[in-house]
Amino acid sequence: MAYLTLKNINKIYPNGYHAVHDFNLEIEKGEFIVFVGPSGCGKSTTLRMIAGLEDISNGDFLINGNRANELGPREREVAMVFQSYALYPQMTVFDNIAFGLTLQGVDEEVIERRVKKTAAILGLTDYLDRLPRALSGGQRQRVAIGRAIIRKVGVFLMDEPLSNLDAKQRVTMRSEIAQIHQETGATTIYVTHDQTEAMTLADRIVVMKDGYVQQIGSPYELYFNPVNVFVAGFIGEPPMNFIRGTVKGGKISFGKNQLDVAAKLGNKAAKYEGKEIVFGFRPEAIELGSQSNAYQVKAVVELTEMLGDNTNIYITADEDKAILKVDPHDTPEVDTDIAFSIPYESVYLFDGETEMVIQ
């Protein structure tokens, strides 16, 4: 039996706005689940329904097989870390971390022992006597996380906890959150719009769009086996390239390049004659020059971005544009012609109407 079960969960507000549609998910104890998607997709609303901060309009939320829709946040034994640190400015780090235990009337000796243990895990031992205003953003977020994990609840809920940090702090905090999860083994549900956070932290990712679940799977599954154009374009940096075209004579056009659909679809290609399909490939999946068992493409270099370990090349083939990722030592000059290959196995084809992957 799953530890947490969300069965046909819907959220409909009094004004009729349908924020979450038929959300279904089973979460095992100790899993790290990430909800990811653009702003307004319903991921934070779903998290708040799990926390008991939002009512569930329709559907069932189960904890260990028992319906929990009507339980309050405290009865659900969850701890939540918000986007804002929500620290008490007049309290020291020690008192902020200990706050939940103090409310519960836990013995002072137990509180001190658990606060010091939690501070050691989070690297806050030297800051316990400081006020929040004397801390950096990353340190404040660690205090907020410490206040959650000290309670030893069954589920940790995190709503975009790193969004207020700079890029370097986010990288550091990602690794710290992953380490905390390993040490505590707690079931964690994490909301973000950052696909890098999702890919690096999650056991499984739930991709959402417009209140609907698009795909659930491991980072590997979502990256290599996306079910539709949205997931394929959302996961990966830079995003997947998409070329839309109508199949004519078994081929679609990429600028002046003719791409044989049958090379990927085999006998299924005839089914799409005269129909629109979406040809997708990841920037890093290409090889410069000519390769066997691959689509051959010629284009013009518009712009290059040297990023250290790789270079992004922005190319154009007539009206079609794409991004390639190459070794920095192979960076071509701007305004020069370029030839590259896309291996057949690295190509994704999607139905132009439904935008679902063509198997």
Description of the structure:
- With 359 residues, the protein is an alpha+beta fold.
- Helices cover 25% and strands 33% of the residues.
- It is built from 9 helices and 20 strands.
- Helix 2 packs across helix 3.
- The longest helix has 18 residues, at 167-184.
- The radius of gyration is 25 Å and the shape is globular.
What is the topological layout?
Layout: E1 4-12, E2 18-27, E3 32-36, H1 43-51, E4 58-63, E5 66-67, E6 78-81, H2 93-103, H3 108-122, H4 137-149, E7 155-159, H5 167-184, E8 187-192, H6 195-201, E9 204-209, E10 212-217, H7 219-224, H8 229-234, E11 241-246, E12 251-254, E13 257-260, H9 262-265, E14 276-281, E15 287-288, E16 294-306, E17 311-317, E18 320-326, E19 337-343, E20 347-351
Parallel strand pairs: 3-8, 3-9, 6-7, 7-8
Antiparallel strand pairs: 1-2, 1-4, 4-5, 9-10, 11-14, 12-13, 14-20, 15-19, 16-17, 16-19, 17-18
Helix pairs in contact: 2-3, 2-4, 3-4, 4-5
